[in-house]
Write a structure and sequence with these properties.
eleven-stranded mixed beta barrel, disordered N terminus, YmcC-like fold, mainly beta
Length: 230
C-alpha cells in the first residue's frame, strides 16, 4: 500500500497473525513519530552505580538532496549532574529507509558531533504490532557511516546486528506494550579494519502508540546503559 511519509520520521511495524484475514493485512503499517522527542541515556558501571548520563533532544526532519536528515542534540553529564559536553549530530538516510532512525539512539556515541549516513540492510517489519509471547522476529542489520572529521576521512563506520529477537512475557507492562529480548553485536571499523567489537544482551519495550520507549543494553562485564523516552 502507498503511504505518504511527508517529512515525519516513522517506523514500520508489520502486522502479524495466524488467520488468513490477518495475513492478508500484513502490508499495513503502524506509524509513529520520533521527531521532537526527548530521550535520556543513563550509563551504569558493573557495580550498578550511575557513571554518567546523556540527554538526547531530537529535532525536526528535513529533506535535502533526496536525503532525510535528523538532527540530534546530545548533552552529556557526569554522575554529579554537571554538564560536560554538548554536541549536535546529523543522521541521514534515504527516504525509503527512514524507519531505521528509531534504532540509532543506543549508538549515538559513535561519530558524535559529525554527520552519519545510516544504511539498513532491510527495512521491513522491524517491530510487529501485536505479537504473542515467544514470537521470533527477523534480525536487524545496519551500518552507520561517519561523513565528517578524520574518522570520516579514514572511512570510519559502525556495523550493527540485532539478532535472536524474541517477544517475552512481562506482567508489569500496560496494555499496548510488549517486551523484546535480543542480542546485539557492534563492530567499529576504520580503513576497513575492525578496531572495536562489543556485544550486548538487550531488552526493549515497545508501545503501539509511541514506539520504542525503553531499551537496556547489558555488556558481558555487567556494566549497562538504559535509554528511555521522556
Amino acid at each position: 500500500m502507498d503511504i505518504d511519509f511527508k517529512i515525519v520520521l516513522i517506523a514500520f511495524i508489520g502486522v502479524w497473525g495466524i488467520s488468513r484475514s490477518v495475513v492478508a493485512q500484513q502490508s499495513e503499517m503502524l506509524l509513529y513519530e520520533i521527531a521532537g522527542n526527548r530521550y535520556e541515556r543513563q550509563n551504569f558501571d558493573k557495580s550498578g552505580k550511575l557513571a554518567s548520563r546523556q540527554v538526547l533532544n531530537v529535532g525536526s526532519i528535513t529533506e535535502d538532496e533526496n536525503q532525510f536528515r535528523l538532527p540530534v542534540e546530545i548533552i552529556a553529564y557526569n554522575r554529579e549532574g554537571t554538564v560536560q559536553d554538548t554536541t549536535r549530530t546529523i543522521y541521514k538516510c534515504n527516504p525509503e529507509e527512514q524507519n531505521i532512525f528509531v534504532n540509532i539512539f543506543p549508538y549515538s556515541d559513535y561519530g558524535k558531533g559529525g554527520e552519519i549516513k545510516v544504511k539498513p540492510e532491510d527495512t521491513s517489519s522491524l517491530y510487529p504490532v501485536n505479537p504473542g509471547v515467544g514470537w521470533q522476529m527477523k534480525p536487524i542489520h545496519f551500518e552507520m557511516h561517519i561523513n565528517k572529521g578524520l574518522v570520516g576521512f579514514l572511512g570510519g563506520k559502525s556495523k550493527i546486528k540485532m539478532y535472536n529477537r524474541r517477544v517475552v512475557a512481562n506482567d508489569t507492562l500496560t496494555a499496548g506494550e510488549y517486551e523484546i529480548n535480543s542480542s546485539v553485536n557492534l563492530g567499529v571499523y576504520v580503513m576497513g579494519i575492525k578496531v572495536k567489537g562489543l556485544d550486548y544482551r538487550v531488552s526493549e519495550v515497545v508501545d503501539r502508540e509511541r514506539g520504542l520507549i525503553y531499551q537496556k543494553f547489558r555488556a558481558g562485564d555487567g556494566s549497562y546503559f538504559v535509554i528511555q523516552l521522556q
